[in-house]
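Notes to self, MarR family transcriptional regulator:
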Amino acid sequence: MNMGGEPGAQRLMESIARFRRADWHKKVLEGYKPSELRVLSMIEKGCLDDARGVTISAISELMRVSPPTVTPLVRSLESNGLIVRSHDEEDRRVVRVRLTEKGVRIRRESREVYIRHFKELYDYLGEARSDQLADLLELVYRFLEEKHKRETEQSEI
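result:
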């Protein structure tokens, strides 16, 4: 796609598009989908607040997706022995999810692999470029958040 006289914008678009094709974020832990590993992370995070476990709706809120998106992932994790589901003792209609020992181990391994990937990138770029990249990514995030806020405010008018 040519942006008609905007070579800088074209270069940005092409550079960002390369990340999708590289699938770098999908190479976390063999045998598990990135979305499953993310659910494990959200369960771990939710269980820090409540040792009884976390609900599907709480997981979906943490992930910013709908509960129907989370449900098949939870089923898959359960069938692989990474989580257990149980009914809440106070309200039997509520289902809570917790990590099993295997789930804790897989979560720990996936976090180590994820950290190692970024450590390798940091080593490759060096301290100065890593700091510069982090600063630029924070600026991009701020731009996108402000743009979203402006568009949301305009659509409410």
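- DSSP finds five helices and three strands in the chain.
- The longest strand covers residues 83-87.
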